[in-house]
Task: structure prediction
Amino acid sequence: MFQLDSHPSGRHFLQIPGPTNVPDRVLLAMGRPTIDHRGPEFARLTLEILDGLRPVFQTEGPVVIYPASGTGAWEAALVNTLSPGDRVLMFETGQFATLWRALAEKLGLVVEFVPGDWRSGVDAAQVEARLAEDRAQAFKAVLVVHNETSTGVTSGIPAIRQAIDRAGHPALLMVDTISSLGSIDYRHAEWGVDVTVAGSQKGLMLPPGLSFNAVSDKALAASRQARLPRAYWRWDEIIAANRQGYFPSTPATNLLYGLHEALAMLREEGLQAVFARHQRHAEATRRAVRGWGLEVLCRNPDEYSGALTAVLMPEGHDADAFRREVLARFDMSLGTGLGRLAGRVFRIGHLGYFNDLMLCGTLCGVEMGLAQSAVPHARNGVAEALAFLQESGESTATTAQKRAA
Ligand SMILES: Cc1ncc(COP(=O)(O)O)c(C=O)c1O
Result:
């Protein structure tokens, strides 16, 4: 029999890179009674949510909400814009790029998958070179994962946009922001993205179950010509119903209550402050990793992720055995190595609803777990992180302090 209270006393530390810790405010909002999704209160809820979502994607255009995990929004982006046999250009940044590719192929798209080392982001020069060679303009879309959750590597979207423009190529640009939206600066409109794919369970601080497509005018125009079969995922029917605050099918009412509350929390903190908080916690985490004498998986400092840090295990040590020890001894979940990184890395999620002391607890759990598992390391990680948090803390007064000032 499944029991959720199997954890010992105190809060479980959910430090995987999503789903993330859900704030009590959001949990309480979701606990309200379910209402009629065809009634007047519901329409107000939807319209307020759509207004609140656009600034998070940094767009004025439509944002489509699905009751689905992120995979559903991946599929929606493709079936709304493309036709059977269309060619798309993708980059092997890690496990999630690999899974999106597999999904595209299952839909009947032809994917050119540029190989990668799972330690680097998308190389904009390669984007430009590949598109410049494509004189027939056979590629209909470039698909990129902004923050590769399997590796902790963030690709530079503005540079990719510029590469597409320099090649003079009309391909759509689609970006997966499932583990970056609401954590790492991301600008759908300014960066000329055509479809942004997002999910609820990471920077948006909600449980899994909602996902999103933000859509440009060019993508909307493409959707009028696209011939891949689509029914449930159709943007046009959802956007039309949304104008009055409704959905064509039954929406996830209580998750939407949670989303309304989470958007209020992001607004209260301010998006720029949210991004700065994530960058600071990421830097503290990397200092801890170096203090332990371990290696951050991401090769290029320009591509360090603000949302998570993947840490390479020393040769001969199993990252999953270490993770099991940390869970059993300290009641903390760390992210597992995915795909070809299985057993070789563990991932520290430092995104979403998170603060300095939660990070301190997380890093203490890792440091104690390394000792407990007899992984060779120096005991300097926590000390390095604390010193950085202290010295960089001046500029990060809490909301309450700022209000009082
Ligand atoms: C970057 C990225 N893309 C796609 C997905 C797939 O989303 P889901 O598991 O919600 O279907 C994930 C899940 O963690 C992800 O991190």
